[in-house]
Design a protein that fits this description.
343 residues, alpha/beta, Aspartate Aminotransferase, domain 1, four-stranded antiparallel sheet, 13 helices, 37% helix, 16% strand, binds pyridoxal-5'-phosphate
Length: 343
């Protein structure tokens, strides 16, 4: 059991949320004169559903999570920020972030003036439970775990993640942006068991919808209520809701893309490991590869000069001399390999 009321910032607990015109009245009417909209129809003259109910129902079917345990954000980046704002008192509380990982947890904490406790992942990029345990203190409110982890690409050990959720009294946020590239169901089915678990997923990766900015957050009804309380009222535009609903109808297309990307990832990893300057291709459960390579910065620059952009991670903890390479189309991957062979 967690005592959510004790975790929430006092001002958020007290807060009376903004009530939008669409909150005051639900259902349908013939004349809407409540939201100061333009009455002349242009397709987009009305505010969108602030609760995105139709879209949530579709997501609920696919992810097998109840609608009231789903929060949708402007990308996963929005719930990351809202979780920090709801639960961490600036200048007092802290969040724990095993590194290396996705940079937005740190940025959002810093923007909100929330201290970051950094622990290192193990050299094979898994959780170091001892250092996590010894870094948690009374002011630690959130732990961010990313699985599969960006930039290393690997799934974290399932049992270790469970252990962190069990031992910690605050919220554990498991970011599963890349879960569709694995053969795992991830942590959504465990929400019933763990009231302090929050799972993030996104339509930006396997679903191919990064442009519409649609992040999904799965958590207890109480946590979802807290996020709803502090979100901007119309945080998901009608265009994004419609595009998400349309995209989610193509489950087979998403599965086909995933299968193709996984096939290409294997091929790309094999081709990369044959190149002499490539020292290591790390195992990946995601749609990218972390690659240790000689003269990283020079190689990165040369690739940029010929119009191939990868991600230089060489300054990142445990990622010395590493580039992170997204798996592209077969033609893109082939061109990358050809060009690396010429360097
Ligand atoms: C681990 C992880 N989480 C979240 C995101 C961002 O997701 P979104 O596009 O939903 O904001 C990324 C993007 O690279 C990521 O790597």
């Amino acid at each position: 059991m967690i005592e959510l009321e004790k975790l929430i910032r006092k001002n958020v607990l007290r807060l009376k949320p903004y009530s939008s015109a669409r909150d005051d009245f639900q259902g349908s009417a013939s004349i809407y004169l409540d939201a100061n909209e333009n009455p002349y129809s242009s397709e987009y003259n009305r505010y969108p559903d602030p609760h995105q109910l139709t879209l949530k129902q579709k997501i609920s079917e696919i992810k097998k999570a109840p609608v009231d345990q789903i929060f949708l954000g402007n990308g996963s980046d929005e719930p990351i920020d809202l979780l920090i704002r709801a639960f961490c008192e600036p200048g007092v509380d802290n969040v724990l972030i095993p590194q290396p990982t996705y940079g937005m947890y740190t940025v959002s904490a810093e923007v909100n003036n929330v201290e970051i406790k950094t622990v290192k992942l193990t050299p094979d990029f898994d959780l170091d439970l001892d250092s996590i345990k010894s870094s948690i203190n009374d002011q630690t409110k959130l732990i961010f775990l990313c699985s599969p982890n960006n930039p290393s690409g690997n799934l974290l050990s399932f049992d270790k993640v469970k252990e962190v959720i069990t031992l910690f009294n605050g919220l554990v946020i498991v970011d599963e942006a890349y879960i569709d590239f694995t053969n795992q169901t991830g942590f959504v089915p465990l929400l019933k068991q763990y009231p302090n678990l929050v799972v993030l997923q996104t339509l930006s990766k396997a679903w191919g919808l990064a442009a519409i900015r649609l992040g999904m957050c799965f958590a207890s009804v109480e946590i979802v209520q807290v996020l709803n309380k502090i979100k901007p009222p119309y945080n998901i535009s009608l265009l994004s809701q419609q595009a998400a609903e349309a995209g989610l109808k193509h489950l087979e297309r998403k599965n086909r893309w995933v299968a193709e990307i996984l096939h290409e990832r294997k091929e790309l990893a094999q081709q990369l490991s044959k190149i002499s300057m490539v020292k290591k291709v790390f195992p990946s459960d995601a749609n990218f590869l972390l690659v240790k390579i000689d003269n990283t910065k020079a190689i990165y620059k040369k690739l940029v000069e010929i119009g191939i952009i990868v991600r230089d991670r060489s300054n990142v903890i445990l990622c010395n001399d590493c580039l992170r390479i997204t798996v592209g189309t077969p033609a893109e991957n082939k061109e990358l390999i050809n060009q690396l062979n010429l360097l």
